[in-house]
C-alpha cells in the first residue's frame, strides 16, 4: 500500500514538471490571462453555482443543439462539415425523451423539403411540456411529423412497439435519392422496441430482466438486445439503405459511445448468435429461453444481409453527437468566467459510488485550502488512488491538482471546478431521493469541520431537471450543512441510511438548498459544481 501511495505521488509530481512545459496545451490559454473580478451583483457563491448549472442545461437544450448542428443554405443542408442536397427528399424519425424539441427545431430549419416524419416520445410528454411552458419544444399544428407516445414508466410497451413499426416502415420505403434525418436522445432504447419475429416484446423483456438479475454487464445486455432487435445495433440505418442517413445524437451515456446510446440504431454493431449463446450459457439461461429466441439465434436478421451492411458502413451514414455532458460543461465554463470565476473542468465521466465521489470532492477542497507552500503529498496521493473508483483518469486528476496549486500561489480568485457523469447510490432504505441530492448531502459532510475549503460551495444537479422520483434536480451544499441540520433537529446519518435525501433537504431551512429548475426537456446526465473561494495563504 505504501508503494502505491509513493508511486501515486511520483505521478503527481511528474505531472507538475510536465505542466510547466505543456501549460498552454493543458489549460485554456485565453482564460489564464483574464483578471477575474467578482461582480457585486452576484457575490453569493450559492447563487453563482446555480447560475453555472443553469448555463450548462441551457447549452444542451434540444432546439439549441439542433440549431448549432444543422444549417440550411438554399437547397443544401450542412451537417458536421458535410453537405447534402435537398429536393423534397427529406424524411425524419426520432426516439428519446428530448427528440420532440429536436424535431420541432429541425422542421423549422429544413422547411418544405421535409416530406414526412415520425417520432417516438415518452407517454404524456406533450402535455407535460405544455404545462411547463415549453411550447417551443412542441410540434406545430401543421407539422408533417407524427408524434407517437409510449414507453410508460420508461419501459417498452405495445404503444412504443407500434411507434417503432411506423419508424421501420418509413425507413424501409426510402430510395437512393432520399435523406433520412434520425434524432436520438436518452431513453430512446425503450421507445424503439422492435423484436425480431417470432420473439414477442414480453419474451425479450423477460430475458433481459433475467440476465440483469443474474449479474450481466451492460455490454452483455446490449449484445443480447441487439441480436433480438430489428432496429438496434445499426438495424435502422440498414433498413433505410440505400438512402443517406444523418443521425443527430444527444448523449446521456458516459464517453458518448455511439453503439450504447439508445442501443445504436444507426451504428453497425452486429451481435453474432455464438456471442449471444455464450452469454446465455455463462449465466445458465440458455436451456430456459423460449423456442422463439432459439429460432432467431439460428438465422440472420431480415434486415441484416451482408450486402446491406457493406452499403451502410461507408459514406451513407453520418453519426454526430450534438449534445453531451462535455458540451454542457463547456457552456458552464463560459458562464463561470462571466461570473468572475476561474473554471477548471475535471471530467465529464464521473461514476462509481456517491460515497467515493463525495470523498474525492472533499479531498480536492482540502487540497486547495491546505496552508503552506505545498499541499501535503498524502492528499494528492489519496486523490489519485480514488481515480479508478470514480472513473477519472490519473492525467485529469494531475492536471486539476496542478491548477488548484497554481490558484493558491498566484491568487487567481475563486475557482469553479466542473465535472459531470452519473454516480450510483447503494440503496439501504426506502426513502425519497436521488443520486444528486445524496451526493450533495455527503459532500456537505466532507466539507464540514475544516475537511474542505472554508466557504466552499458544492452543487449536484441532473440536467433533465429530475433527480430520482422527486421534483428536484439536486441540491446545493457547503461546510455549514451539519450545524444547520443539527440546529433544526435533523439527523443527517438517519436520512442517509434511509436514502431519504429529498426529505432531508425539503425539511432543512424550508427547502432553500434544493435545486428546482423544473422539467428542462434535455438530458446529458449530471453536472457537479464545486466553488472554491480564494483565501490568503502564507508562503513564508
From TrEMBL:
<dbReference type="GO" id="GO:0005524">
    <property type="term" value="F:ATP binding"/>
</dbReference>
<dbReference type="InterPro" id="IPR007835">
    <property type="entry name" value="MOFRL"/>
</dbReference>
<protein>
    <recommendedName>
        <fullName>Glycerate kinase</fullName>
        <ecNumber>2.7.1.31</ecNumber>
    </recommendedName>
</protein>
<dbReference type="GO" id="GO:0008887">
    <property type="term" value="F:glycerate kinase activity"/>
</dbReference>
<keyword id="KW-0067">ATP-binding</keyword>
<dbReference type="InterPro" id="IPR039760">
    <property type="entry name" value="MOFRL_protein"/>
</dbReference>
<dbReference type="Pfam" id="PF13660">
    <property type="entry name" value="DUF4147"/>
</dbReference>
<dbReference type="GO" id="GO:0005737">
    <property type="term" value="C:cytoplasm"/>
</dbReference>
<dbReference type="InterPro" id="IPR037035">
    <property type="entry name" value="GK-like_C_sf"/>
</dbReference>
<feature type="domain" description="MOFRL-associated">
    <location>
        <begin position="49"/>
        <end position="297"/>
    </location>
</feature>
<dbReference type="InterPro" id="IPR025286">
    <property type="entry name" value="MOFRL_assoc_dom"/>
</dbReference>
<keyword id="KW-0808">Transferase</keyword>
<dbReference type="InterPro" id="IPR038614">
    <property type="entry name" value="GK_N_sf"/>
</dbReference>
<keyword id="KW-0547">Nucleotide-binding</keyword>
<feature type="domain" description="MOFRL">
    <location>
        <begin position="416"/>
        <end position="526"/>
    </location>
</feature>
<keyword id="KW-0418">Kinase</keyword>
<dbReference type="Pfam" id="PF05161">
    <property type="entry name" value="MOFRL"/>
</dbReference>
<comment type="similarity">
    <text>Belongs to the glycerate kinase type-2 family.</text>
</comment>
